[in-house]
Amino acid sequence: MKVKHIEHIGIAVKSLEESIPYYENVLGLKCYAIEEVKEQKVKTAFFMVGETKIELLESTDPEGPIGSFIEKKGEGVHHIAFAVEDLQSALHEAEEKSIRLIDKQARKGAEGLNIAFLHPKSTGGVLTEFCEKQKLIK
Ligand code: ZN
To answer: Is the separation of the CB atoms in 120 and 128 below 8 Å?
Structure first.
């Protein structure tokens, strides 16, 4: 597969409102978008750092994936997302190499990206996301 760059780092936070000031006032980044992704029960806030984004994730439902992550582990780094050239074939390749997939098919993420997750049990404990721009999906 061809991994192009780190697309974003996902960070679970209890509250976007309380977390954004650190990124803006201390790191001097600018929050350029806030978006709700209903399917994943999260509200996201984005910052650009070079080619890579920081994606803050606030749960909109305690039963959702971010809600239960924070419940178990507290706030902190949640996942790393790699931009790949061809998401579906990257998934096939990972599966062929015995990586457990959370998503066998790409699904919709924030910012018009198609995304899919690999299981942290087969990636050394790092929840890993692959993503690509939506228009590339057939
Ligand atoms: Zn992500």
So the answer is: yes
Task: Note whether residue 21 is domain-resident.
Answer: yes
- pTM over cut 0.85: yes
52 Cα: distance to centroid of ligand 1 (angstroms): 11
| Average pLDDT, consecutive stretches of 10 residues, N- to C-terminus, the chain (138 residues) | 96 98 98 92 96 97 93 96 96 97 90 92 96 70
Ligand 1 centre and the CA of 71: distance in Å?
Answer: 19
Look up the domain containing 20 and give its range.
3-133
Nearest to 36 by CA among 46, 28, 25, 27: 46
CATH (domain of 120):
3.10.180.10
Q: How far apart are CA 126 and CA 121, in angstroms?
A: 8
The structural domain count of the chain equals 1
Q: How far is the CA of 109 from the centre of ligand 1 (A)?
A: 7
